[in-house]
TrEMBL record:
<protein>
    <recommendedName>
        <fullName>Glycosyltransferase 2-like domain-containing protein</fullName>
    </recommendedName>
</protein>
<dbReference type="InterPro" id="IPR001173">
    <property type="entry name" value="Glyco_trans_2-like"/>
</dbReference>
<dbReference type="InterPro" id="IPR029044">
    <property type="entry name" value="Nucleotide-diphossugar_trans"/>
</dbReference>
<dbReference type="Pfam" id="PF00535">
    <property type="entry name" value="Glycos_transf_2"/>
</dbReference>
<feature type="domain" description="Glycosyltransferase 2-like">
    <location>
        <begin position="6"/>
        <end position="53"/>
    </location>
</feature>
Length: 54
């Protein structure tokens, strides 16, 4: 599989912003083959669980 785009997001306790960011990426990228990698820095606000769930 060849990807058109890789996006790396670094996160620390910004669950709401991260949710909006991910939603926007998937809404705007349409048919582009992409991967999104979220790097979390020991968040305590539920960010990790939100990414796994959504």
């Amino acid at each position: 599989m060849s990807l058109d785009l890789s996006i790396i997001i670094v996160n620390w306790n910004t669950q709401d912003i991260l949710r909006d960011c991910l939603r926007s990426i998937y809404e705007q990228c349409g048919e582009i083959d992409l991967e999104v990698i979220v790097i979390d820095n020991a968040s305590t606000d539920g960010s990790v669980e939100m990414v796994k769930k959504d």
